[in-house]
Amino acid sequence: MGLSRLDNLYRQMILEHASHPHHHGTLKNADHQLELRNPTCGDVLVVQVAMKASKVSDVAFSGSGCTISQASASMMTDEVIGKTAAQVEQMVVTFSKMVTGDSVDNVDDILGDAAILEGVAQFPARIKCATLAWKAIYQAIENDNKESTIGLMRHDEL
Amino acid sequence: MVKQMNELIKDFPILDQKVNDEQLVYLDNAATTQKPRAVVDAVTNYYYHDNANVHRGVHTLAERATAQFEDVRKKVAHFINAPSEQEIIYTKGTTESLNWVAASYGRTFVKPGDEIVISYMEHHSNLVPWQILAKKNGAVLKYIDLLPDGQLDMDSVKKQITDKTAIVSLAHASNVLGVVNPVAKIAKIAHKHGAIMVVDGAQSTPYMRIDVQDLGIDFFAFSGHKLMAPTGIGILWGKSELLEQMPPLEFGGEMIDWVQLQETTFKKAPWKFEGGTQNIAGVVGLGAAIDYLESIGMDKIENYEKSLIANILPELVKIDGLEIYGPLDPSKRTGIISFNLKGLHPHDVATALDMEGIAVRAGHHCAQPLMEYLDVTATARASFYLYNTVEDGQRLVEAIKATKEFFKNGIV
């Protein structure tokens, strides 16, 4: 057994996203932005969102973190572009349920490639790593203030 | 009877289990230690046979509970060589002990413009209470620098402690860097400037013989659960002349002398600090843990851990891409080794090691200013205790090597 179990968590696509994350950087004209800290490990993630015609037109993230949090952030950015705020919220809720082991329908349709992170459910200590970016974009879109705000990792909800 | 170190593991039922199909290797002892059967039995026996509230009953069980509760106070005094058991205050742990020094002694005696001196290696519980005190009382919080190998910079000690310093508070042993700080030497410097010396003994008390008189300090704090006692019981030791001057912080049952409608007088220390029903079973467990440690001998424990580290550290140093924090000379370390694998977050490392049955901690270890000082977001930490073996260390070394390979190739 031993390390072979890691394959359930660190799928090849996840390792690739972590080493070459998509949309990693900053946006010049963000409509929403938020910094979220994971107090258990000290990871910090900044998410910026630009909106056009009520849809996410661009997104970027910066900050450091583990393989899971970086890969999850990278996949999140791929999946939210073109989505409305309500659709993003549905994705965040779906993602959260998926990685905490709740059964959800149509995961692949709703989350696209990010559905590959469902293996995280077998590693409870890593759920917060996976959800950090999703909580960040949810709170960023909720936050109408264009200035960067520091969000709080809410443990019980979403 | 002197116990053989390699037989100790039998005293810890929890260690005899598989985790992820591998034999458990528990290396998270700096977070909390496992409890020997003797401690669990003492707590169980107390609840089965002696449970009652202390200091307030005339019946037989209350007498028994009170006798045990106060006997452990004597045992603790002997364990750290305090001059009197009346200087031993029960708390819920090191955090509460240090908070009480800051909130009671600190709020009463620190004046605007005074300085409080700590170091960059402090655990948040020996940092935040002083930060809050400094803000409340208008004092200045100053930090002692570290040398590149993680030891305290003695030149910085001499520079930061001045005639304005009211309190110096330092970790006796670091929970990240594995160094033991020369607190006796620093206490002399603090006293020369009229400051008091507070010592956070959370990581040193499980590991080495403590003699608070020999250290020449004013306050000493430690937690039971880091030396095999239950969680929720800790100790604050303070010099009686200081304790007498300190106001209690929690008011209510147990701690009063006489209550009238508008006025109350309080008991003497230590009882004036122990408001409400205490963690009596925890105290009983602490007594059993001290008995267990003393049946082995603290000097022997320190030597054994030193020999473990001397065996394992050179093997870790050989791993290419493994960064180790703190001194590389094993003689300068406790049983704690913090490390990072280059290019890999410590959470990933800890998950991989867990798959191999090895429990380590990953994160900032409640020392965020130290993480910033080291310019890392987090580290992995393996911490050994007296039931660990050289084989445990070898398992760790092999698992770190396998982890490195896994993430290099993306496959096992």
Automatic annotation (TrEMBL), chain A:
<dbReference type="GO" id="GO:0016226">
    <property type="term" value="P:iron-sulfur cluster assembly"/>
</dbReference>
<dbReference type="InterPro" id="IPR002871">
    <property type="entry name" value="NIF_FeS_clus_asmbl_NifU_N"/>
</dbReference>
<protein>
    <recommendedName>
        <fullName>NIF system FeS cluster assembly NifU N-terminal domain-containing protein</fullName>
    </recommendedName>
</protein>
<dbReference type="GO" id="GO:0051536">
    <property type="term" value="F:iron-sulfur cluster binding"/>
</dbReference>
<dbReference type="Pfam" id="PF01592">
    <property type="entry name" value="NifU_N"/>
</dbReference>
<feature type="domain" description="NIF system FeS cluster assembly NifU N-terminal">
    <location>
        <begin position="10"/>
        <end position="129"/>
    </location>
</feature>
<comment type="similarity">
    <text>Belongs to the NifU family.</text>
</comment>
<dbReference type="GO" id="GO:0005506">
    <property type="term" value="F:iron ion binding"/>
</dbReference>
